[in-house]
Design brief:
The protein has one domain: HUPs (Rossmann fold), CATH 3.40.50. By secondary structure, the protein is an alpha/beta fold. Helix 4 runs parallel beside helix 6. It binds adenosine-5'-triphosphate (ATP) and magnesium ion. Adenosine-5'-triphosphate (ATP) binds next to helix 2, strand 4, helix 5 and helix 8.
Length: 223
């Protein structure tokens, strides 16, 4: 009963401007967390909901860690932040995860008045044309594209030319230069190199305790 209240009750009672941070989170790291926190502050969001993907359509080329482990790591990582939440929406949905379905799901949950802000890395926006129903998606939410200092905004010109509707919906957010990626963390674990200070300690301990990413063959070195 308490679980149900925390998962849905709290989310509903706070709604207005809500951030949605989708990702594989395999594992979640400080790049994700610092981006979410910056979005919260810069766009005056009431909360950021982390949405670990179920089966991600864009990441089929290496064995993605089972959803429950990625969900657990995400829960651990956000536990100390009162404005961060985690949703099981994509994990509990069968089949591949598409942003359009997730945004529609949150629209239903929060109602039409709530403004949804989909937070991604600017690199992900470069691929937006390949997303399912992107025109419709733009009608349902804003996008916050996290750029690192030095990111060349002109790289997005082509995308904006092909998708003019994106212009009014796309907001940029400069985040501190965090050259952290999940793939690098997985590689480090496999090679026995440190991952300390790249991600929350609880997540680091969970990775070692469960033996995640230890097996080189499970990693995408050959990618
Ligand atoms: P991988 O290395 O496996 O691609 P990742 O580190 O990019 O993983 P994802 O779960 O794919 O992590 O990322 C989720 C979202 O977070 C994406 O929108 C991605 O662009 C963004 N992101 C990832 N790393 C960073 C970072 N260091 N700074 C800002 N945004 C990031
Ligand atoms: Mg990535």
């Amino acid at each position: 009963m308490t679980m149900t209240f925390q998962q849905t009750g709290t989310i509903e009672s706070l709604a207005r401007k809500i951030g949605i941070m989708g990702g594989t989170f395999d594992p979640i790291h400080f790049g994700h967390l610092v981006t979410a926190e910056a979005a919260l502050a810069s766009f005056d969001l009431e909360q950021v909901i982390f949405v670990p993907s179920g089966k991600p359509p864009h990441k089929k080329d290496y064995p993605v860690t089972e959803a429950e482990a990625r969900y657990l790591m995400t829960i651990m990582a956000v536990a100390t932040n009162a404005r961060f939440r985690v949703s099981r929406m994509e994990i509990d949905r069968p089949g591949y995860s598409y942003a359009i379905d997730t945004v529609k799901g949150f629209r239903e949950l929060f109602g039409p008045q709530t403004e949804l802000y989909f937070i991604t890395g600017a690199d992900a926006i470069l691929e937006i044309l390949t997303w399912k129903n992107v025109e419709k998606l733009l009608g349902l939410c804003h996008f916050i594209a996290a750029t690192r200092p030095g990111f060349d905004l002109h790289a997005l010109d082509q995308v904006l030319d092909k998708l003019p509707a994106l212009k009014g919906r796309l907001h940029f957010l400069e985040v501190p230069a965090l050259a952290i990626s999940s793939s690098d963390i997985r590689k480090r674990v496999a090679e026995g190199r440190p991952i300390k200070y790249l991600l929350p300690e609880t997540v680091e301990h969970y990775i070692y305790k469960t033996g995640l990413y230890q097996d080189r063959k499970q990693n995408e070195e050959e990618r």
